[in-house]
Amino acid sequence: MEANEERATPAREARAIVSRLLFGQLATYAVGAAVRLGVLDRIGDGTRTAADVAASGGTDPQATLRLLRALAALDLLTEHEAGVFEATAAGALLRRDAPDSMATLARVFCEPFMTRARERVEDSVRSGAPAFDAIFGTDFFSHLKDEPELSRAFNAAMGQRTHTAAQHVPPHYDFGRFTTIVDVGGGDGTLIAAILRAHPAPRGMIYDRPEGLAQAPAKLAAAGVAERVTLEPGDFFAAAPPGGDLYLLKSVLHDWNDEQCAGILGHIRQVLPPDGRLVIIEPVLGDTVRPGATALPYMSDLNMLVTVGGRERTRADFEDLCATAGFKITGVTPLPTADGLYVIEAAAI
């Protein structure tokens, strides 16, 4: 061993963990900058020099090189030789033209309306209330409703976030045995489109606010299922539409507190036929955090706390919540997704 080579020790590793976390916010903003500057779009499928990327984007050459090297250290690029870069599989997801692009999601998650509340985690931990409301003077979804451009971007980002789930949900649940699947809070239709493409028998309905449904017609038409889907504007806090024998909630309940969720589930219980089913697609937290567990669901939990006042839940939490609204959980199936999603089936008691 070289005289100046430092041996890895538990203490050194511990300090490295804390140091990486302290720079985590800067890593997020580096990704956001890369998306806004179109860095991955300009690199494309092959290799490109930092000088070329800077010239095509009108950015400073030295600063561009520094950004690209930071992205390489984050495993989004590979630097094959000095100043020559190629996108990794993860980096390719930040291209706008990628079939499974996460570019809009990355951009939205770096916007001030998403980041400012995270700066106030301490306030939310003290109060138990979302910091967003105090910062912006209204709740998250009301703010979006008053900002049409942000609303469109957010809906598109949520569609991109649902894309991976939409690939894994259809083969992990027998949707084909139902007649009408109602996607409550289904937004642009990414999930229901994937389900109907995989299961040709059922029809679908998307129930959401008008601003949530705005991009659904184009998404459903592109998927070739528009004629099988009804768009029903409405508010799931006020009612659930009748006519379905399967009601689907994907990433809805984690936005809301237990009382609000009980209201949403109660409306579905009122219109669900005796042989109908409820399917909830959400992360399911363990009763304890085991060593090596992915941090993503727990970071999402904090994001729900500061932004909307919702939460991620354990299986016991879901059982209690469903029981309050007249449901009993009949199955919990993990999905092979990075964000720890599960398919939770429930039947009426």
From TrEMBL:
GO terms for biological process: methylation. The active site is at residue 254. Pfam families: Dimerisation, Methyltransf_2. Transmembrane segments: none annotated. Residues 20-94 form the O-methyltransferase dimerisation domain. Keywords: Methyltransferase, S-adenosyl-L-methionine, Transferase. It comes from the Bacteria. Residues 121-328 form the O-methyltransferase C-terminal domain. GO terms for molecular function: O-methyltransferase activity; protein dimerization activity. This is Hydroxyneurosporene-O-methyltransferase. It comes from Streptomyces paromomycinus.
